[in-house]
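Researcher: Go.
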Amino acid sequence: MVSPASRLGKIPPYLFGEIARAKAKAKAEGRDLIDFGIGDPDQPTPAPIIDALTRAAHDPETHRYDESDAGWPPFLASAARWYGRRFGVELDPASEVLLLIGSKEGLAHLAWAYIDPGDLSLVPDPAYTVYKMNTLLAGGDVHVMPLRAENGFLPRLEEIPAAVADRAKLLYLNYPNNPTGATASLEFFSQVVEFARRHDLIVCHDCAYSEVYFDGYRPPSFLQVPGAKEVGIEIHSVSKTFNMAGWRVGFAVGNPEVLRALNRLKSNIDSKQFPAVDMAAAYALDTWTEDREPLRLYQRRRDILVNGLNRLGWNVPPPQATFYVWVPVRSGYTSAEFAKLLLEQAGILVAPGNGYGEYGEGYVRMALTVSGDKNGERIEEAVDRLATAL
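Model: Structure:
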């Protein structure tokens, strides 16, 4: 048999594939599993969005390939309007918005659009694995920016050697952050803009969790900082905001030149998605409201879990955003060992922190998207199981 491309040898097994296999095995054994693993919204897509899809699917205009340049124009216009309402940032839908087949696709293809063999990306650690792996697949090198608790899980840009920063072409960031749940301020983003100008690099801010927030906090956009459009883009998703994870709709906004390069690559790889899906996503953006039931449910789950962990001896602060809780492992265990202990002794599935990078060691990630939970009762049961197992 012909061997696969050597580039595949640069990447480990996909973390979430491993988690899915562990979950399938436990279920096959008949175990009652409480799944804090993959951050997949567990509530259904709101009915009005499904109705919008139905209406659009009955329109014959949506039954052909989307031959637009950057995406179905009504969707681009809706994304620009939403951005203005939510962040106060004006966007030109004709040049500053690009339709994506989910945010993951855009994050990955940006590396392929800009990284040649020997080029460099600055990548946070721990982090969503897509930034690092696609830089490596494109033949590039990665310089890791450690995210440490003592710095609020923000990278210390001043620790990056000037020669490394000058060589870098891309700087990936993600706030609110997966996996740590950390947030970033406009002051930090201002430092990022200055850093990017000084070293002539492109910033890609993964903002997929901007609409999952609690306690009156509202995450800012990187593009709210003056000059941000000159140095980078921001990537959004409708998945987490509207429980549309399987619909595969996202969008990139910001610097027109960067979006053109990304779109040039994409136009040779994909033919966009079914336009009716774009119309449903446009409806979702146009009817967006902060008062959403899933946020209240996530907050209740967060409070039950964090308070329960702290009663059991942890000192875990409640995250202001995302549906993740970043939990230090108990002394004497690696993150993988602790995840295995919880699975075997308590029937609780978590993601080991080392799957997100070297600096994720010592933690596990617990997602608040627990299937089967109605009002926090499965979270309470998980806390009880932890108390018994530990």
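Model: Residues 239 and 245 are 4 Å apart (CA to CA).
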